Amino acid sequence: AGDNSAGGGLRIVEYYNDDTTLFSSEIANFYTNGIELKEATTVSGNLTITENIVHAGDTDTRIRFSNDDTINFETAGGNRLHIDSNGRVYMGAVTSSTGYGNQVLITGTLGLTGNGSNVGMHFHRSGGDTEGYIGIGPWAVTGGSDNDFGFAAKGDLIFGTSSNTWSQKFMIGDNGYSKFGTGTSRATLDIKQGGN
User: Fold this and answer.
1) Is 96 exposed, middle or buried (0-12, 13-18, 19+ CB in 10 A)?
2) Nearest-CA neighbor of 169 among 183, 177, 181, 152?
3) The dihedral of CA 123, 127, 128, 129: what is its sign?
4) What is the three-class DSSP state of 9?
5) Which among 28, 77, 163, 182 could disulfide-bond with 60, CB atoms 3.0 to 4.6 Å apart, if both were Cys?
6) Tens digit of pLDDT for each residue in 131-155?
7) How far is it, in rounded angstroms, from Cα 77 to Cα 196?
8) pTM of the entire structure?
9) Of residues 186, 154, 185, the one with CA closest to residue 172
10) Distance from C-alpha of 170 to C-alpha of 183, rounded to nearest angstrom
11) Residues contacting 108, CB < 8 A, separation 6+
């Protein structure tokens, strides 16, 4: 151990020799405002942190524990990824998820890219048999090409719009029938107008 009075704390140094030369290796500096570790450190138990893990020399990049059961990942002083106490994940500047349930909420654009046709998203309801695919043609829809963009559903594929409540406006049934309006499609193309 040595005096680290310039930094207002204590310095720990390891001394060793090879029978001809005395070497020293700085292990840690203990300052009045924190600890600086000079070598890789293994913690066998818990490492308890009150608030932040900060990148050295880049203090606006950090992992922050802002509240109980909450984790923020920040770069350039802004929140980039946030996990709340309900397990919801926010990307970007999303701050509220009222009414959305347990989801990943993104501010901005979600981009998916790949070299080939294996690009898309798969949706599956746990505990059921409902599935949906969105993506490059052959990945999403059997028979599609790499130049196609596809939507597929295991079941009916429905489209809805809303002014007050989300309601069905168009449906492609799993039998290949299509319907504008509400209800089940009964023909290759079924248009419901008024009370018909």
Assistant:
1) exposed
2) 181
3) positive
4) strand
5) 77
6) 888 998 888 888 888 888 999 998 8
7) 58
8) 0.50
9) 185
10) 9
11) 91, 92
